[in-house]
Each structure stands twice: as structure tokens, then as C-alpha cells.
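ok so heres the complex, two chains, lmk if somethin looks off
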Amino acid sequence: MWTLARKLLLHDRLRFAVAIAGVSVSVMLVLVQVGLYFGFMDTASAVIDASSADLWVTRRGNDSFEFASPVDERALYKVESVRGVARADRVLINFAQMKLPSGGDLGVQMVGVETRPGEAPLLAPWNIVGGDAARLAEPGAIACDRSDYGKLGIDHVGTQTEVAGVRAEVVAMTSGIRSFTTSPIVFADLRTARSFMPQLGTEAVTYVLVRVAPGEDIDAVKARIEALPNMAAFTNHEMSQRTRTYWSSRTGVGAGFFTTAVLGIIVGFVVVGQILYSGTLQYLREYGTLKAMGAKNSAVVRVILSQAMISAVLGFVLGSGLAVAMKSAMAAANLSVALFPQLYVATAIITALMCAFASLLSIVKVLRLDPASVFKG
Amino acid sequence: MHALAVSEIAPAAVAPTRERASLARLVGVGKTYGSGEHAVAALANATLDIRAGEVTLIEGPSGSGKTTLISILGLLLRPTAGQIFLEGRDVAGLGERDLPALRAKHFGFVFQGFNLFPALTALENVAIAIRMKGGRRPGRAGLSASGGGPRAQRTDDSPDGEARRLLELVGLGPRAHHLPADLSGGQKQRVAIARALGGDPPILIGDEPTAALDTKTALSVMELLRELASVAGRAVVVVTHDPRLERFADRVVRVEDGLIQGDNP
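and the predicted structre for the whole thing:
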């Protein structure tokens, strides 16, 4: 059956090429769109995912990670006093204006973290590719991502700049830390970050990161913290998912990407369906002849399904290659396309189902084909 | 590419038990479309015995019921009246589930338009039909023409092997790997005949198999069918408008207005 299916497909090479192109574009759209979505979501939760904290504590009602309202430092003391908390670090996240060499300003997402000598912080810049992250403890020290260098007008570690009129120096360069918003992420020590955002006061804290004591149950500690007035606590995973859900649902970005992916599937479905159907019509008398001579419907259906699966496999391979090429091209534009094995497997299954369903019309046509029709002219 | 290939390949292949034995029998068969005032009788009260080793021509004007007759005989169309006996069993009432296997076992079909897959070589066209029929049935030779002979002992029993033998039988061995587009009309029809012989059916039904061929080629194809009946002991039933083919026939059945008007040996 495979031989017949392959030969029937290849007999009209132009039509076959159109079918494969249709499936390939469909596969590429699904992979790139869903990959972009997950890439954006990875970006959205990157700071949280990089943390080694067990719990994130914040003011109740804070839905957005980036736009969370700060609380004062008493939150830290309250959290530290909860049984089972081994360590608590303050984090301040808010937006500040960075001076550009051109004279203008650019809003940056400032992440103020605790820098304690001799202790690994629960949150710190990662993927350091230049400079020295340990120098963040110095007043005015900041760490920027190299992907934002052009945007920020920075050309090397050691560049002097200003944030909210306060002098700052780039002491470390990171790689691959992108912001979901258009504002670059800039790390600084908590005190430095507060100096960059004086409007928040000198005791502002957005999150308290918690390390649970060894042997303590994280959920139990979380429940104790949530019993504090006006406090909400989330595990690292919960915080990550919450942020992803926020951006996915509030911005419609999820619906946008998945709608495009579904459109890709529809395009593939229509193209493959039309190609298979026209091919089936072309060989209807031959199929009828086989049925007349005793071929079972299942045998003829297998030929059509085999054609669909050949189209699916070749289209998937080609489409995956296109998606990988697109990923490289988009990386140059600072866009992250997350292509991972589960996505490939899911897309392969979707492609197979798409092609199988696209062949249904052809299958119905063959099933209804009256073998006696071959005698009718 | 000569019909003589049949006798050249397997001169001892005649199956004596098949000769003149009844292979299929229609008794009082009729086909009526619609009902009541709108009923149209395409065929009425047709009784016909199809015997091994015989070439039966079915003649008649267009719309007379010839196609209906061979469609019912080939189990492609269910009659509204009468009985169809195959191996002594009435199969007229069998459902669509059972018919493909019966058709595969008992009938091979040859059409005016050849109906060959253009993407497949001659060999592949024959082999795919054999595969779809479920391959060669155990206990029967791939061809009566080759069954039992020493040559058959050495040959390949796979669908490809059987297809190769069948193409040799119809004189197209050297053209086995040609596409239909590279074959003449007569050669295409020989491929179609080889395909019809796949699975070793005892009855070949041809629907104007020579209508698309020039006179010389048509006679050559008819000669091959004649040999398949005489030498290999098959029953060959051919619908035709061409009276020149009568010299190859053992019987001529004339159908007019849905009735068998004559059955002349």
C-alpha cells in the first residue's frame, strides 16, 4: 500500500509539492507560534524561575509580577518571625528611568536584590558573561543584559550612566535575560534600587523571598505566612505559573498565538484535503476497478491514509526545519522561540491527525464508490 | 507479445475438470429500478450458464441490458429477482460484506478503458491487484496455466512473482517495468488481462475490452482471451458490439430490451 500511495503522490510532482508545502507551512506556523508563546512565557517568568526561593511573599491582591504594589519592610520582619522560615530576602521590583547617551530616557524594569557578603542570594542576576556580579553590592552598581546594550546605549562593562538622576555604573553583563515588557531588566542591590526609585520611599519591598528551614513542610509554612494580615504567599512554581497566566490571559497574547497556530492547522487541512481529494477523483476508476476485483474497502482506504501519512511525515520534517531556521532568525531579533521535544511530539500528532482528517472526504468518496460504476462508461 | 504465450508457457495447464463444467449460473435473474408506476426493468428473467473453457459473447444494442447482465453476473450489482449460483450455492442474497471475497475468488474484470494506475509499472499494476485481493489462495496455482508444471515449482509465489508470470503469460514479460504511458493500447489491455488473472479467478468478464483498439490489436487481444478459455479452462464472458469477434466465441448471447433473446452455441 505504501508503494502505491507513494507512487500516486509522486506521479504528479507539482501537486505533491503543493501538498507538502501546505503541511510544512502549517507545521512551521504551529511550531513557531506555540514556540513563541512559550518563549514569551519563559521570558515572563524568567526572574522567578531563576530564583532559589521556596516561597514568594507579597501583598495580597498583587496580580502582576512586574506591576506589584510595594509594602514596607515590616513585611520582612513579620515573615522572618514565622515558624519554619530559615531565611528571608527582600526584593524590590519597579520601573525607573535610565538616561540614554542621546539625552533621552528609557524606562527600565529595576530588580533590587539583597547582596549579603558570603551568602548566595535567593535571587541574583544569572548568566553573567562579563564584569563581576559581586560588585553589585557597591553603591550605584547595576547589571544589564547584553541584548539590551543597543537599546540602553551601553557598549561595555564599566559604562557610566544615570538612573532617575542618580549615578550608576554597569558592573556586570548578563546574557539571555529578556523582559516580557519592552523595558530592559536591570539588576541592582536593594539599596541602590531604592535610590533609583525615591518615589517608593526608603523601606519599599515588593516581595519577600523565603527559604524554608530543612525538614519543614513548604505548604505548612506557606499557610502560616498567609495567616498574616494582608499577605499572600506562593511557591516558586505557583508564582511562575501565576505570572504566565497573567500575561497570557490579560494581554490576549495566548489567544493571539494559538489562533494563528489554529489557522495554520486549517490551512494545512484545506490544502492536504483538496490535494488528496483531487488525487482520489483522478484515480476513481482505478480504485473502482480494484474494488470490482474484490479489494476490500479497507485496502483502498489504507492507500489514501498512507498518502495522508506520507504528506504528514514529509511536511512535518520540512516544517520542523523551517521552524528551526525561523527560531535562529528570530533570536537575532531578540525573540525567543521555545522549541522543545514535547512540542515536537504534540505537533507531529496534530499533523498526523490533521492529514488523517483531511483525507476523510476522499475516504468517504471511495467508500461510497460503487464498483459497478466502472462498467458505466 | 503474442497470445500464443499461453500455450508456450504452460501447454499442459488445461484443467480438465473445469472444461464445460458450470462455473456460474443465473436463473430467472431480473433487475428493476424504482417501483410502482416508475419501475424500469433493466433486465428480466435472465437465465445463463457460464461454463469452463467457453468464450461467451454478449451482444445487443446500447441500453439493452448487457452491462446490467454482466454486472449481476460479476456480483457488482444485486438483482431484484432470481438466483445466482456459484459453486452450487445461491449468492444472490449475500450482503456487501461477503461479496468482495467472492468477486476476488471467482472473477477477473477487463475494461474498455484499461483502468491502469498511470503511476505504476505494468508489473506493479498487476501485483497491487493481487495484493489487494489478498494474494494467491493456498491450494491453487497462481495460474492454472502454470499450476502443477515443473516450471511452477521453481517460481516465486509472492504477488510480484505471480504478476511477473502473468505478464509473461500475456506476452508482456519484457515490458513488465514500463509505465502504461509507454505501452500501446493493445499492451495496456494485456496488462489489464494479466491483472484480471491475478488470484487465478475461473471467470473473466470483459466490458468491450477491444472497443478502444485497432482491428489487428483487437483480434490479437481476443485471441488471447480465447486461449485463456481453451488452454487454461477459464470461462470468458465478453460484452461487445463488434460482430467480428464472434469467430472467437463458443456462444453468442443476444440481449434486447432487458431480455435474453438468443443463446446460440
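quick notes: Residues 1-19, 137-154 of chain B have pLDDT under 50 and may be disordered. thats all i got rn
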